[in-house]
Amino acid sequence: MTTTHLPPDHPLGSGLTADAPLINQYRGSRSSTGEPARSGRRPVWFMRQAGRSLPEYRRLREGTTMLDSCLNPELASEITLQPVRRHGVDAAIFFSDIVIPLRLAGVGVEIKPGVGPVLDSPVRTAADVAALPELDDAAFAPITEAVQRTVAELSTLGPEGSAVPLIGFAGAPFTLAAYMVEGRPSRDHLGPRAMMHADPETWNALAAWAADVSGRFMRAQVMAGASAAQLFDSWAGSLGRADYQNHVFEHSRAAFSHVAGLSGVNGVSAPLIHFGTGTGEILDLMKDAGADVLGVDYRLNLAEATRRLGPGTPLQGNIDPAFLTAGWPVLETHVREVIAAGSGAAGHVLNLGHGVPPETDPAVLTRVVELIHSLDDEAAV
Ligand code: 1CP
Q: pLDDT of 104-147, one tens digit each?
């Protein structure tokens, strides 16, 4: 963590993506009228836009495990590009997974189809935490190569040959540690929530380890060419406010510190987004942890999010994925309502309130993108 300078040929610093609609909204560049200031195109991308909803993804993934495909630069890059080509979204999200840093450190982990991340041995005691391996920077080589390939392709994939920004990401310490303690997906995350009270020292050591590997994973992606980074604290909504404040906040801040203020020669720094589900009660803390932009899930109206955070905080979200199968007229009304609810924030990037469900008809996603892009200069509702 020595330099805060992006390499000179980084797309954000070289100007390729610095003025992209996505980056403008993330930087809160809306005019006082609430309309996008520097570009008429309303930006949209979807969490889990790469993945099982796309037949071309299912074809490419055949015969390769999830984590092996993430570590194959050619495959990871191609999968990242698929939804950009198909839907015309305003950002690519790097195809990887929050447990990739565990695999790169040598922790035994697989993604079981239909289940999610499963560890060979859960991490539950002080001795388990002390035995966690060091993650060597050299292990990021396949990530760096995949990002570089992807960014080269993205440099002309936007409208009129413009560049589409790549978003890098990592799992936040709580969400990553939740998988490590439970050893697999869980509903209520009792294991990590019990550990932070029963044995705070072990919890802090584990969360600090998770913050370090996740922070460095995000940093590797930004240094290699990603123009923004998103920290996913998908399960932070299972925490009470005091627990977040006392046992999680500092660790998330540590993760963000690896990518804070990374800027190009033009002084533009990579925007940082923080997302979780059910996090309405802790949005302000999630911002203070180091985020420029708050990702809001579908449970909280964006106007209420702005009331809680103040109008200066750009927002991302929050189309309810349930509407994707509700029929077009109902979905269209919902999308327009989301745009209206977000209009009081300094910036707004459209997204879902959580990931694309695997059974989603991709044609519906393309139509949502077309609708959002068609609403440039007219009132949304
Ligand atoms: O079989 C398959 O195709 C694997 C399904 C899959 C995919 C496509 C998994 C397993 N991970 C991913 C990719 C992935 N994961 C991306 C990249 C691409 C994109 O968004 O388009 C990202 C950003 C993630 C991040 C991720 N992994 C999160 C945070 C986001 C979220 O959805 O909340 C979490 C919690 C994970 C863990 C994980 N990995 C995979 C699954 C099914 C899960 C969730 C398991 C659970 O319910 O606990």
A: 999 999 999 999 999 999 999 999 999 999 999 999 999 999 99
Residues whose beta carbon lies within 6 Å of some atom of ligand 1: 47-52, 66, 93, 95-98, 111, 113, 116-117, 169, 175, 185, 232, 234, 355
- Which pLDDT belongs to residue 29? 78
Tens digit of pLDDT for each residue in 4-21? 899 999 999 999 999 999
Q: How far is the CA of 97 from the centre of ligand 1 (A)?
A: 6
User: What is the per-residue DSSP string for 34-61?
Assistant: SS-SS-SPPPB--TT-SSTT-HHHHHHH
61 is catalytic: yes
Catalytic residue among 26, 57, 179, 298: 179
Sheet hosting strand 166-171, strand order edge to edge: 92-93, 166-171, 228-232, 272-275, 293-295, 315-319, 348-352
Confidence (pTM)? 0.96
Residue 46's pLDDT band, with cuts at 50, 70 and 90, is very high
How many Cβ atoms are within 10 Å of 32's Cβ, its own excluded? 6
Domains along the chain with CATH numbers: 11-301 (3.20.20.210)
Please state the atom number of ligand 1 nearest to the C-alpha of residue 230.
23
- Neighbouring CB atoms inside 10 A of 369's CB total 21
> Does 193 participate in catalysis according to the annotation?
no
Atom 39, ligand 1: which residue's CA is nearest? 116
Per-residue pLDDT at 173 exceeds 80: yes
Q: Whole-angstrom Cα distance, residue 337 to residue 70?
A: 36
**Mean pLDDT of the chain, nearest integer:** 95
Amino acid at 257: S
- Cα 252 to Cα 245: distance, rounded to the nearest angstrom: 10
* Catalytic residue list contains 52: yes
